[in-house]
Specification:
mainly alpha; 169 residues; two-stranded parallel sheet; single chain; Rossmann fold
Length: 169
């Protein structure tokens, strides 16, 4: 959460000719409701089931960049599925960058919307401690600290493409 998956994915898609799929957007479209509404009406467990199904559907497609939610890789079998279907990249954002991004966008994120700044910092620390073993199963990693303006996004896209996007003959 807050690592820049959607920002980077949306910027990479037109540069690479690959289709970008944000897993949360995919779920919202399929379910006809916002993630926050799913959490409120059906609970986190139901959302995680929907997320697992959506990941399996998207993983079956080709020529796609997928941004999954921060908890997606932590579900049983999720990283194995993702690694089997393509190159997985852990977007590694520093704690200060995560904190700043999540402070700015917390209202639209159901898991953190009600947290004050101190609680948010503890949430980030706790989440990273719990999730890092799964994130480190990704085949690659990429620093996502430089996504704050158009110039940084362009530079990060160029670096990402040079490192991870195979050119087709």
């Amino acid at each position: 959460m807050g690592s820049g998956k959607s920002t980077l994915g949306n910027a990479l898609a037109p540069l690479t000719g690959l289709r970008f799929v944000d897993l949360d957007d995919y779920i919202e479209s399929r379910e006809g409701m916002k993630i926050s509404e799913i959490f409120a009406s059906r609970g986190e467990a139901a959302f995680r089931d929907m997320e697992r199904q959506a990941l399996a559907e998207v993983a079956a497609t080709e020529d796609v960049i997928v941004a999954c939610g921060g908890g997606t890789p932590c579900r049983p079998g999720a990283m194995e599925l993702m690694n089997a279907c393509g190159t997985t990249v852990y977007l590694d954002a520093s704690f200060p960058r995560l904190l700043e991004r999540l402070k700015e966008g917390r209202a639209k994120r159901p898991l953190i919307a009600s947290l004050d700044d101190e609680e948010l910092a503890r949430f980030i620390t706790s989440s990273l401690e719990t999730r890092m073993p799964y994130y480190l199963l990704a085949s690659r990693s990429f620093s996502s600290d430089r996504l704050e303006d158009e110039e940084q996004i362009a530079g990060s896209c160029n670096e990402f493409i040079a490192r991870f996007i195979a050119t087709k003959p």
